[in-house]
Amino acid sequence: MFDLLVKVKDNKKISPDLWVLSFDSEKLAQTIVPGQFLEFKVRNSTDPFLRRPFSVYKIKNNTIEILYEVVGEGTHLMSELQPGDTFLSLGPLGTTFTPQKNKKVIMVGGGVGAAPLVFLAQKQDFDSMMLGFRGESAVLPLSEAIGDDNKWVYATNDGSVGHKGFITQPLEELFKQEDSPENLFIYSCGPNPMLLEVARICQQYGVDGEVSLEERMGCGVGACLGCAVLTKSKGYVPSCKYGPVFNIQDLELDELKNSG
Ligand SMILES: Cc1cc2nc3c(=O)[nH]c(=O)nc-3n(C[C@H](O)[C@H](O)[C@H](O)COP(=O)(O)OP(=O)(O)OC[C@H]3O[C@@H](n4cnc5c(N)ncnc54)[C@H](O)[C@@H]3O)c2cc1C
Ligand code: FES
Q1: Which residue, 6, 84, 227, 241, has fewest beta-carbon neighbours within 10 Å?
Q2: 48 in any annotated domain
């Protein structure tokens, strides 16, 4: 883990609600693994006091890309960064997705939860990338797709793009049509209600997988206990240190329901 002063290369809107910020770091590009995250301090003052956690979205050569949505003060400040501006990036932090060799891999994301899955898709073969968004303005443009874009399945709440409804509905259809669901492996990241539904379906069909949690974080290094989640194997653990990637079977889902 290292705290780097990085220089913004580009920072642009790729859709009405989504931004991509990029910076160069050979050190980070060569060490960070899908699932891990970075803690950014975008302004050199105590306001906003805490760092903000972000996943890596893509790495092209030594350029790191971050996909983000403006939801509050930290991300608003981030959207104002100009090429040449600098900020602090702490990481790589947290656990990684486990590579799969002999399973049929399905990735399921919601909103900016797509980011770590797209980075994973740069390294891991997959059969389907299933992404859910609240509406057209929040949809990740298909021009951003990694690999064959026929593998990308979209859902929006209002049906403006792709399936109308939640992405977990086409996911369940896929499970139903599969002769041997136990040969599937799910990687998922998104809001907790979506992860809960993914976990429920996986349990019902006997499918294994990993989820990356987007619990709110403070320190990002296990010191403040602000991101505790309940696991079956270890009880309460800080998600920033023992996660954000967890085995889908290890999470106490009822507890997750109360957060995020
Ligand atoms: C491991 C990890 C990886 C992440 N990766 C990304 C990413 O790649 N791209 C991205 O856009 N965001 C990502 N997030 C979420 C991102 O960290 C928050 O959106 C950001 O911290 C908000 O900061 P802010 O100051 O703009 O908003 P704040 O002022 O802190 O909050 C604004 C609003 O957003 C809500 N909010 C803040 N953080 C979260 C959260 N983690 N989950 C749900 N609601 C939240 C608050 O409740 C509030 O309503 C990630 C979070 C984690 C834990
Ligand atoms: S964010 Fe401080 S312990 Fe996880």
Answers
A1: 84
A2: yes
Which residues have C-beta within 8 Å of that of residue 225, sequence separation ≥ 6? Answer: 238
Which residues approach ligand 1 with their CB closer than 6 A?
37, 48, 52-55, 66-69, 71-75, 112, 115, 214-217, 244, 260
Answer yes or no: is 54 within a domain: yes
Does residue 234 lie in a domain region?
no
DSSP annotation of 251: B
Number of domains in the chain: 1
> Which CATH number is 8's domain given?
2.40.30.10
DSSP type of residue 144:
G
Residues ≥6 apart with Cβ < 8 Å to 156: 132, 133, 134, 135, 136, 139, 162, 163, 164
Q: Whole-prediction pTM value?
A: 0.95
User: Which is nearest to 67 in space by CA: 19, 100, 105, 12?
Assistant: 19
Which ligand 2 atom is the nearest neighbour of the CA of 239? Answer: 4
Q: Is 71 helix (H, G, I), strand (E, B) or coil?
A: coil
Nearest ligand to the CA atom of 56: 1
CA angle 201, 120, 147 (to 5 degrees): 100
Q: In angstroms, rounded to a whole number, what is the distance separating the alpha carbons of residues 57 and 186?
A: 18
Pick from 258, 57, 48, 251: which is nearest to 146 by CA? 57
